[in-house]
From TrEMBL:
Gene name of the record: LOC100284717
Species for this entry: Zea mays
Alphabetized InterPro entries for the sequence: COPS7/eIF3m
Gene Ontology CC: one annotated term: COP9 signalosome
Name of the protein in its database record: COP9 signalosome complex subunit 7
Keywords: Signalosome
Superkingdom as given in the UniProt entry: Eukaryota
Length: 231
């Protein structure tokens, strides 16, 4: 299910990116931003925001569409309300989308969302957030939430976390390799001891065999001597 959603996101991003590259006017690009931010299945916008074609919106009468796209990439409904005077009015589909994105932002920081927050933000379907309502504790327990676009600060933090994880993994791998080497060494030592033991057993067998042969030869010689004496 999650893989299907990620595949759908990638397809939509590629579709809108291709359209943006083909457009030649700020008005057309502003219309594309409107379509993308209203699309019910698209929840990632940073790749669109990074397209050089969209830089055409800067400094034009449609520059607020670029700010709106940035809001959908990183912001919340509260951010929109605080800056609504400088942003385009939202269509019902965009309002719904921004509420959904706002819930994703809440789900990033905590897995237990109080009702008071959800009453302001929650309008979720499409499976981008899954969980269960706990009426006794008056909260929504998040079990799954789709990822949002990362701000530059979040990206740097994520890189640091992954770097730390990589360092820990390298250390653990080194420890495992050392244990494998130790196990191989002990195995070689045990094989050597086993070979030495088997060699000693073989030598002992040979010694016993020689003694037996010697004993038989002595008995035969004594028998022959006795016979000679009797003659």
């Amino acid at each position: 299910m999650a893989m299907d959603a990620e595949r759908r996101q990638a397809e939509l991003i590629a579709q809108f990116s291709s359209q943006a590259v083909a457009l030649s006017s700020a008005q057309q690009l502003a219309a594309l931003v409107l379509e993308a931010t209203s699309h019910p299945a698209l929840f990632a916008f940073s790749e669109l925001l990074a397209l050089p074609a969209l830089s055409m919106l800067a400094g034009t009468q449609y520059s607020s569409s670029l700010d709106l796209l940035r809001l959908f990439a990183y912001g919340t409904l509260k951010d929109y309300k605080n800056n609504s005077g400088s942003l385009p009015a939202l269509l019902p589909d965009q309002v719904r989308k921004l509420k959904q994105l706002s819930v994703l932002t809440l789900a990033e920081s905590t897995k237990i969302l109080p009702y008071d927050q959800l009453m302001q933000e929650l309008d979720v379907s499409n499976g981008i957030v899954r969980g269960k309502l706990d009426q006794l504790r008056r909260c929504f327990e998040v079990q799954f939430a789709a990822g949002r676009d990362l701000t530059p600060d979040q990206l740097n933090n994520m890189i640091e976390i992954l770097s730390d994880w990589l360092g820990t993994s390298d250390s653990l791998l080194h420890q495992i390799q050392e244990k494998i080497k130790w196990a191989d060494t002990m195995s070689d030592v045990n094989k050597k001891h086993q070979k030495e033991f088997e060699d000693r057993v073989e030598e002992a067998k040979k010694s016993i065999k020689k003694l037996n042969n010697l004993s038989r030869q002595t008995s035969t010689y004594e028998g022959m001597t006795t016979t000679s004496l009797n003659l």
